[in-house]
Write a structure and sequence with these properties.
This protein is an alpha/beta fold. Helices cover 37% and strands 15% of the residues. A 6-stranded parallel β-sheet has the order 1-2-3-4-5-6. Strand 4, helix 4 and strand 5 form a beta-alpha-beta unit.
Length: 186
């Protein structure tokens, strides 16, 4: 059976009922089936959050040789003050990511933030782009071992295409989550 070398999977969406032994079984199974990349579920940020379960999943997956993508997200209808707290927390997570000392870890600067910025004082979509690029630029100096990315929906292809990214300076990668719409798949 031929296996695509870039095969990846989302994992950890049931981390509320996390079981470390089951995680080991799952990771071994995925590895045996040719998966090499894992995107660990991104929790809503928590100021000073420990993120115990995702961090354990990340450590286990990296030890098995997986390429791992992870980060935190903003809550639905987030406010301007939550946005500021979120950006501060991402820098804390970037410092933690640096301690992993592993280039197979890709830190996400957020996920579909533009779909959640309807709270009081929240940034506009254009400000999300500008702020995320600026946050990534700050994090480039904090997390130096791996890549920084941002993942968003297909409705944001044009704004991000216009803004562009500068690998090594702000974002290294941009991802577009296209779940069900073949018309926007590119």
């Amino acid at each position: 059976m031929a296996i695509w070398s870039g095969l990846g999977i989302n994992y950890g969406h049931s981390s509320g009922s996390y079981n470390a032994a089951q995680c080991e079984i799952d990771l071994n199974f995925l590895k045996s089936r040719g998966f090499t990349k894992i995107r660990i579920a991104s929790p809503t940020f928590s100021t000073g959050g420990a993120y115990t379960n995702p961090k354990d999943m990340i450590t286990r997956a990296l030890a098995k040789g997986f390429y791992v993508l992870w980060g935190v997200t903003v809550p639905a209808a987030f406010t301007g003050s939550q946005w500021e707290a979120y950006k501060t927390e991402v820098k804390v997570i970037a410092a933690w990511a640096e301690t992993l000392n592993n280039a197979n870890f890709q830190l996400s600067m957020g996920n579909e933030t533009e779909n959640k910025n309807s709270g009081a004082g929240a940034p506009t979509d254009a400000e999300v782009v500008t702020d995320t690029k600026a946050l990534a630029a700050e994090c480039q100096a904090i997390y130096t071992k791996g890549l920084l990315s941002y993942e968003t929906g297909p409705g944001q292809i044009t704004p991000w295409g216009v803004a562009g990214i500068t690998p090594g300076t702000d974002l290294d990668k941009i991802g577009f989550n296209v779940y069900y719409d073949l018309a926007t798949f590119k």
